[in-house]
Automatic annotation (TrEMBL):
GO terms for cellular component: membrane. InterPro entries: AAA+_ATPase (IPR003593), ABC_transporter-like_ATP-bd (IPR003439), P-loop_NTPase (IPR027417). The keyword Nucleus does not apply. This is ABC-2 type transport system ATP-binding protein. Transmembrane segments: none annotated. GO terms for molecular function: ATP binding; ATP hydrolysis activity. Signal peptide: none annotated. It is found in: Membrane. It is a multi-pass membrane protein. Keywords: ATP-binding, Membrane, Nucleotide-binding, Transmembrane, Transmembrane helix, Transport.
Length: 242
């Protein structure tokens, strides 16, 4: 396996009965890349992501994630990736500090390391004043930033983000993306789904899924040239409308 390619996918397919939710997709993601995984509702993004994070077995095809085979080594994949979804969030009834300690423990960090991580995270995110407050009392944008940082607590090679910024204002989304850039600059690969087309512009490369297939994959600049579009929203609309 090529070490620069931390995700390698070949003809990956998922069927639910006769329905093909993910239809023969092939792509690679490079180390440290911010890879945008776009598609309309129901295009198959979450189904594809679930196969890549080792919680759903593909029907056909091949995929290696962080060097491990999704068919035979799903447990190792789980140890080497971070995952953040809108649904899987932090515990509202634990404080900021308690959440960090809890997830640090789940990922097997030592007490000393958890303490260090908690201090760094709280400082970096400017959460010093609310470290002992229940997460449930924080604004959504703060929760998302904390949730992202917690998904990186075990220094995973790749982090999968499923619509991480849903429902927050543009300024908070921008701050969230600064955290993403920082992680990518430190070598973490980012695999992100989003419905916000301005966020697609921030990605190194973007794939666009339509009805289970990847219909386009390139840098935002090249996609705009290819589709003679002014912005990623136009690219998306041209593809989604066929
Ligand atoms: N367990 C399942 N059984 C049957 N069909 C499913 C199952 N999971 C997903 N599907 C179908 O597969 C298709 C792709 O769904 P998926 O959730 O992957 O789309 P998505 O691109 O992530 O959409 P969204 O942006 O709304 O999250 C949809 O038509 C969905 O109804």
């Amino acid at each position: 396996m090529n070490n620069d390619k931390v995700i390698q996918v070949e003809s990956l397919t998922k069927m639910f009965g006769d329905f093909i939710a993910v239809n023969d997709i092939t792509f690679d993601v490079n180390k440290g890349e911010i890879f945008g995984f776009l598609g309309a509702n129901g295009a198959g993004k979450t189904t594809a992501m679930k196969m890549l994070i080792g919680i759903s077995k593909p029907t056909f095809g091949k995929a290696h994630v962080a060097g491990f085979d999704v068919f035979t080594d799903a447990e190792n994949i789980k140890k080497n990736i971070g995952y953040m979804s809108q649904k899987f969030a932090l515990y509202d009834d634990l404080t900021v500090k308690e959440n960090i300690t809890f997830f640090g423990g789940i990922y097997g960090l030592s007490r000393k390391r958890i303490k260090e991580k908690a201090n760094t995270l709280i400082e970096e995110l400017g959460l010093g004043n609310v470290a002992n407050q229940l997460v449930g009392s924080l604004p959504l944008g703060w929760k998302q930033k904390l949730s992202f940082s917690v998904s990186l607590i075990h220094d995973p090679k790749i982090v999968f983000l499923d619509e991480p910024t849903g429902g927050v204002d543009p300024i908070t989304r921008r701050q969230f993306w600064e955290l993403i850039y920082k992680a990518a600059n430190q070598g973490t690969t980012i695999f992100v789904t989003t419905h916000y087309m301005d966020e697609a512009e921030y990605c190194d490369r973007v794939s666009i899924m339509v009805n289970g297939k990847i219909e386009a994959l390139d840098t935002p600049k090249k996609l705009k040239e290819q589709f003679k579009a002014a912005n990623m929203n136009d690219v998306f609309l041209k593809l989604a409308r066929g």
